[in-house]
Amino acid sequence: MDVDVSKARSILPEERALEGGTRRQSPFREPNRMKVTIKMIRDACGESRDQGRLVINGSQVFTVELCGMVTRIEQHERWTDYEIYDGTGSIRSRIWPRDEDGYTDMSGSRVGGYYAVNGTCTVIDGDAMINTLIAREVTNYNSVTEHMLSVIHEHLELGHRLSSNRIVDRMGTKAQLDIDKEGVLMLLSSDEEREKEDGLTEDYIRAKMGLDRDNMRKVLDGLINEGLVYNTVDEYHYKMAG
Questions:
Q1: What's the pTM?
Q2: What's the burial of 238, exposed, middle or buried (CB within 10 Å: 0-12/13-18/19+)?
Q3: 105, 132 in Cβ contact below 8 A?
Q4: Which of 17, 47, 112, 208 has its CA 20 to 30 A from that of 54?
């Protein structure tokens, strides 16, 4: 991405609490960064969070990368607040000075300028804010388009991976169910209690199989639907068909 880095000032690469500028010793690691749009952050605020962090596309978000236009700047004694707009929405952001002179990556910035922003997300009363780690001015507007294309590519990959994991999970669940069915059939055909007139009880089978009640019911219902076992005196007693 073509950006003008001559004005970029690096700050300590660590997360900082949004209120009061208090630092938390949690290192900023580049691989954890996710390229997003502001709308994606807004949408994630309404979803359940993993250990307090936003979850986007099934992935826990540590740091985000945005690219958009600065629409408002407010200088404070201890920090600078600004708002950034990326075409999908606006979000309030905050950055702290990097040194005793009070300079930040937003020092000398202007409303209407475009910036690439890396930061952490903080949600307060359901509203998201960006806690800025690094901000750098974008002078080539193609970079905004490149960012959006990168967002699309990255999240298509995440969606594909999530879908693949779900397919594998479903296959694993079906395989385990088939194994449990075989175990119940063996039990009904060979257990010494099978000769009882009423057959084996669900609790007896469950104790032998080591399954919880819900999974036991799935196995037995499946075998009944397949015509391999049947109920005798009530729905809790079973014998093998044939």
A1: 0.49
A2: buried
A3: yes
A4: 112
